[in-house]
Amino acid sequence: QVQLQESGPGLMKPSQTLSLTCTVSGGSITTNYYYWSWIRQPPGKGLEWMAAIAYSGSTYYSPSLKSRTSISRDTSKNQFTLQLSSVTPEDTAVYYCARGLWVGQYDYWGQGTQVTVSS
Known about the structure:
Largest sheet: 7 strands, mixed
Order of helices and strands: EEEEEEEEEEE
Helix content: under 10%
Number of helices: 0
Number of strands: 11
Distance between the termini: 40 Å
Shape: globular
Strand content: over 45%
Radius of gyration: 13 Å
Structural class: mainly beta
C-alpha cells in the first residue's frame, strides 16, 4: 500500500520561503502514469490544488500560484518537494501531498501538515 508523509516547518514568518517534502513508501514516484500533487486547505476554506509532478518529471502549476511555486523530486529518496516563496498569513493552511492519475483524481493522501505564517 502506498503511503505519503508530509514534512514541513510548522511555523513561518512572512516573506520566507516554505519548503515541504513528501516522502513516499510502498510505491515509486516514477511509476507510470501517476501524478504527485500538493494540495492545501486554508482554515474554513476548501481544498486548493497547487502543483503536481508527473512520473516522467514533468511539472504543472496552478496559475494563481505559479509565480511563487516550484515542485521538484528526488527519485533516489522517493520524495517530492514543494517550495512556496514570499509567504503571507494567507498561506496558512494544512498542506497535503497526494497521488493520482491526474489532478483531482487522487487515490492516496498524506495526513497533512499544518503551516502557520505569522509575524
